[in-house]
Amino acid sequence: MFVDRAKIFIRSGKGGDGAVTFRREPYVPEGGPDGGDGGKGGDVVFMADSSLRTLMDFRYKRKYQAENGQNGMKKKKYGKKGEDLIIKVPPGTLVIDEETGHLMKDLVNPGDSFVAAKGGKGGKGNVHFKNSVRQAPNFAEAGGLPKERNVILELKLIADVGLVGFPNVGKSSLLSVCTKAKPKIANYHFTTIDPNLGVVEVSNTSFVMADIAGIIEGAHEGAGMGFRFLKHIERTKVLIHVVDVSGSEGRDPIEDFDKINNELARYSEYLMKKPQIVAANKIDMVDEDGPEYTRFKEYVEAKGYKVFPISAPINVGVPQLMEEAAKMLATVEAQPLEETMEIFDFEREDNDPDYRKVEVSRDNEAYVLSGKQLTKIFNSTNFNDIGSIRYLYKYIERSGAVEKLKEMGLEEGDIIRIQDFEFEYIDEF
């Protein structure tokens, strides 16, 4: 099964906690602190792998987590860094942050990669908190929290040539004749639900051709599976527009031609900038010199397109069509994919201006403090050690949070809550 969209949860590794240890050596009374730093948590990395062509694996596994960093150890030994988690996806995959809807990375080429979630930093051991006043710090820094998010994976096929047209006009037959691909072919609508790829070899060169499932009216608004079909055309360099000139489905070939191009243009004007060749299929069922085909040919050529009469099942006119596609490809540069979505701001995430901000609020009778750095320091606090508690209080005081709480009505004896812990406020610490 071809799967071109998936949603997964990713979580980087937590940073290892710094160690609280002291030297314990013979003949060294009151040995000082020697707690080592924790190791950094593992990153979550996405990488494009040419051996993959669908997102099928992500249907069965939806949660991915990198390894946590190891805690620090005595004798100033660092904890081991957590192993990075590399998630392999097919080339052509877009990675999108679900919360913001912003594009994190377009992994176009095999080997392209990026870090989607950085591991938490390792916490500092108690050796870093020794000073002239605090000779034996009985606390250390907790490891940095991991980053976690839901991401959407969206695959857009990478092919040189894309076959477009209404359902049942012969795109799959054309692909099967030109390549070794074995698409399902039958005389009913939407035989092709999933895109098929094949390699065309012609004139000492080759190119990849994709049979894009049939487009219908309203596809640009999502009718049928319009969005799913149309997005696979975006990366192609050349389009072959297959039209049933026999009218065997009871439709007018000229109307078909205009309707498909209208759907392409309304989905993205960018698609209409692509070179397009028109394949007048099922020519064996009409008189090539008759008025119906002549009218179609003149109409299309007047719009600046080349028309090639073909009959895909019996390979009539197909070699000439492929020669023209190869010739056109040789002159066309790959156009960059025009994405309208915003780009995810990694710099802002790495340098979060609100990281040190302490938020204050009130929940019934309790005053609530919250904040990213506050959480980290709180998690590092040893509540059996007065120096560690004082370190936490001084941080809260310097942040201005105490003054804000007093403005909200905080008085001695009131309850202050941090996470799930509650404390009684004492005006003089």
TrEMBL record:
Transmembrane segments: none
Family the entry assigns: Belongs to the TRAFAC class OBG-HflX-like GTPase superfamily. OBG GTPase family.
Domain OBG-type G as annotated: residue spans: 159-330
UniProt cross-references to Pfam families, sorted A to Z: DUF1967, GTP1_OBG, MMR_HSR1
Region (Disordered): 20-42
Name this protein carries in UniProt: GTPase Obg
Gly residues bias locations: 32-42
Residues in Obg domain copies: 1-158
Protein's UniProt keywords contain DNA repair: no
Role of this protein: An essential GTPase which binds GTP, GDP and possibly (p)ppGpp with moderate affinity, with high nucleotide exchange rates and a fairly low GTP hydrolysis rate. Plays a role in control of the cell cycle, stress response, ribosome biogenesis and in those bacteria that undergo differentiation, in morphogenesis control.
InterPro entries in UniProt: G_OBG (IPR031167), GTP-bd (IPR006073), GTP-bd_Obg/CgtA (IPR014100), GTP-bd_prot_GTP1/OBG_C_sf (IPR036346), GTP1_OBG_dom (IPR006169), GTP1_OBG_dom_sf (IPR036726), OBG_GTPase (IPR045086), OCT_dom (IPR015349)
Annotated localization: Cytoplasm
Keywords associated with the record: Cytoplasm, GTP-binding, Hydrolase, Magnesium, Metal-binding, Nucleotide-binding
EC number: 3.6.5.-
CDD domains in the cross-refs: Obg (cd01898)
Residues involved in GTP binding: 165-172, 190-194, 281-284, 311-313
Species of the source: Gallibacter intestinalis
Cofactor(s) of this protein: Mg(2+)
